[in-house]
């Protein structure tokens, strides 16, 4: 490795997840500069087309291509070499980012190529989620870099059929945080575990009928959120029926972003609003 590459390795990225902050802070390679302040979106979905090379590709199978959707705070940078003397070739830049990600316990998610996109996932030291670096349009002298601070995952709380029943008896409903793939209605394994508890509840109370109601935060278009919430409600209902429950005891309803229970201006609040509620039907 050249001395210039070694200096780049030390200066290109500061991983601050070991400190109190969970996010990544980035600096350009030595001899490069940001051409302007980053374009920042506080919360949204960033989509990048990849050929999957790891287990962190969501619903994309290894070796297959597709859109990887990353949700969270997005900072997009344009990076330029200050002069011809400072310019590195694109493959060297990609190798350095891979080395930095690997050192932090991360990995390259896509197969990658010289000009990109090249996608690197860096897990947080606290074990709660990860952050991502995407290198695109990399011609050595100039490239685009996007940093995605992954949104808090919709972690499914450990809630039993009995606990669901107690909440429904007390208030007529229960809110569940069921994990889906980002912007999709595909259940994750933790979500499937909750589905089994819903089925157990219904089996223990043969007269109980439930409206399965999907809710979202307010990120994106209201009409899109309505469709997504409906698709997620239907996915949960279908999964419960697959556990041996009569479909006539269930109804799927997409409420979209219309009924928040927390502040959509914060990540924590948005996480609470992304939920599925079971509502007792008469």
UniProtKB/TrEMBL annotation:
<dbReference type="InterPro" id="IPR050330">
    <property type="entry name" value="Bact_OuterMem_StrucFunc"/>
</dbReference>
<dbReference type="InterPro" id="IPR006665">
    <property type="entry name" value="OmpA-like"/>
</dbReference>
<feature type="signal peptide">
    <location>
        <begin position="1"/>
        <end position="23"/>
    </location>
</feature>
<keyword id="KW-0998">Cell outer membrane</keyword>
<feature type="domain" description="OmpA-like">
    <location>
        <begin position="164"/>
        <end position="282"/>
    </location>
</feature>
<dbReference type="InterPro" id="IPR006664">
    <property type="entry name" value="OMP_bac"/>
</dbReference>
<dbReference type="InterPro" id="IPR036737">
    <property type="entry name" value="OmpA-like_sf"/>
</dbReference>
<dbReference type="Pfam" id="PF00691">
    <property type="entry name" value="OmpA"/>
</dbReference>
<keyword id="KW-0472">Membrane</keyword>
<keyword id="KW-0732">Signal</keyword>
<dbReference type="InterPro" id="IPR006690">
    <property type="entry name" value="OMPA-like_CS"/>
</dbReference>
<protein>
    <submittedName>
        <fullName>OmpA family protein</fullName>
    </submittedName>
</protein>
